[in-house]
Amino acid sequence: MAANRSGDPLAGASVRLSRPGKAGLAADLETDRGGRFAARDLSEGEYRIDVTKASHLPVSVTVRVRGEPSEAHVRLLRLGVITGSVVDAQGQPVRGAFVFAIRDGGQRELRAGLYAAVDARGMYRLYGLTPGSYTVAATYGASAQNLGMTGSATVSSAGSGAAYYPDNRQPKLFTVTDGEEWRADFTLLPQATYTIHGQVEFPPHKGLFWIALAPEDRPDLASAAAQARPDGSFQLPGIAPGSYTVFVSGPSLGRGFRGGVPPENAFFGRARIDVTSEDVHGLVIAPQPALTVPFVLQPEEGTVCDGRGELVLTPLEDWAAELARRVPVESHEFQVDRLAPARYALSASGMGKSCFTPEGAVADLSKSAGPVAVRLVPAGAIAGRASGSAVLLFGGAGEPARVAYPDAEARFAFDELRPGRYRVAVQADPAKPAGEPFPVTVTPGEPVEVDLMPR
């Protein structure tokens, strides 16, 4: 049976059964009006049940089928929503503003629901938020999003920038557990702003260079972006006082939501700059060819890798350019070309059930062009005791929830987990909601033992 957190049946949920290590599906079903499903004529053994429904967090359950009928009670949590507005000091909508939900401790993701453009009334809606904590930020004025989408951008009365809710010094964390609906309203006040005048020093070429300006303390969201003119000159107007990094990439032959699309023979540059109480003149940046960086995989003891897979490089700085890379890996030593002198988060993908990069793995190419050692660590696990009908495990963004059923001795376990932060909740009664989730940090190797018994 599939139900929501309150116990109400969920009709029309997709239910798929598969056998570990076997191709294809054992059953492809849909729940009826009572939230029920039935898979018949199954051979004995272990099955994985994947349950999905729109606006709910997918759930994965492992069950063992024996001679007698088996039952699985699956609870689906609703995904969270954040709504609000972006207005100026007069309460007028700030046209061209974009709003983002950024997972705490993670990178900004540009997938449906996690960002939104304000409408004609200045309203926005973020949706599909999986359990976890989020900050909310708005970009306005000459943002990379405006420039990438329309090819032009207008500076607002508040200038150009990125604002976190309720302020940049101490952003609020919005916690989502089961379908919460939050509100975050931005009011952008007028402030003293200045213009940065600069020059990209580069021979004549086809295409334009993109310039992004990001605060030193929050480089993951640019305050402003611009395209250099054919002669290399550029302006960044509406900039508030502060310390920034200027990023240059190109010559771009296209644009997208993130900004420019660097070609294979791209050039990159970066410079630090302070904006105080006047316009900035004389900034000159000479871009250099993209980096070719050697990488070396270093599996730790106990790590079992398949010998191939992908290394995912996600930029931790907003260059107003498409910099993310997915690199096929077929040996322990390899090179990656076309990289910017940027900071990248590293993540191993598809290298095996017990082969992961540790949480927080970073390649800082702003200071060194390698070689980069990539640690690979074994999977982790959570084991323990719980008094209840089920234990729910919530992972990172986009990962389905997992469910474990305590045995006769109240023991449960989740294995083959990517090391990192998770949230665990106990459902004491199948007819009642699960309790509040609490954090658990999974380390490589030995299981993390947790005691969820009542005290």
Tell me about this structure.
This protein is mostly beta strands and 455 residues long. It has five domains: 2-76, Sandwich (Immunoglobulin-like), CATH 2.60.40.1120; 80-188, Carboxypeptidase-like, regulatory domain (Immunoglobulin-like, Sandwich), CATH 2.60.40.1120; 194-288, Sandwich (Immunoglobulin-like), CATH 2.60.40; 290-376, Carboxypeptidase-like, regulatory domain (Immunoglobulin-like, Sandwich), CATH 2.60.40.1120; 380-452, Sandwich (Immunoglobulin-like). 2% of the residues lie in helices and 48% in strands. It is built from one helix and 39 strands. The protein has one helix at residues 144-150; strands at 2-4, 14-18, 27-30, 45-52, 59-65, 74-76, 80-88, 98-103, 115-117, 123-129, 132-140, 161-164, 174-176, 181-183, 186-188, 194-200, 208-215, 224-227, 233-239, 242-252, 255-256, 259-260, 267-275, 280-285, 288-289, 291-299, 309-315, 325-329, 333-339, 343-349, 362-364, 372-376, 380-386, 390-394, 401-404, 411-417, 420-427, 438-442, 448-452. Strands 3-2-4-5-35-34-37-38 form an eight-stranded mixed beta sheet, with no helix packed on it. Strand 21 and strand 22 (259-260) form a beta hairpin. The longest helix has 7 residues, at 144-150. The relative contact order is 0.11. The model has no long low-confidence stretch (mean pLDDT 91).
In short:
The protein has 455 residues and is mostly beta strands. It contains 1 helix and 39 strands.
Helices and strands in order:
Elements: E1 2-4, E2 14-18, E3 27-30, E4 45-52, E5 59-65, E6 74-76, E7 80-88, E8 98-103, E9 115-117, E10 123-129, E11 132-140, H1 144-150, E12 161-164, E13 174-176, E14 181-183, E15 186-188, E16 194-200, E17 208-215, E18 224-227, E19 233-239, E20 242-252, E21 255-256, E22 259-260, E23 267-275, E24 280-285, E25 288-289, E26 291-299, E27 309-315, E28 325-329, E29 333-339, E30 343-349, E31 362-364, E32 372-376, E33 380-386, E34 390-394, E35 401-404, E36 411-417, E37 420-427, E38 438-442, E39 448-452
Parallel strand pairs: 1-6, 5-35, 7-14, 7-15, 16-24, 26-32, 33-39
Antiparallel strand pairs: 2-3, 2-4, 4-5, 7-10, 8-9, 8-11, 11-12, 11-13, 16-19, 17-18, 17-20, 20-23, 21-22, 23-25, 26-29, 27-28, 27-30, 30-31, 33-36, 34-35, 34-37, 37-38
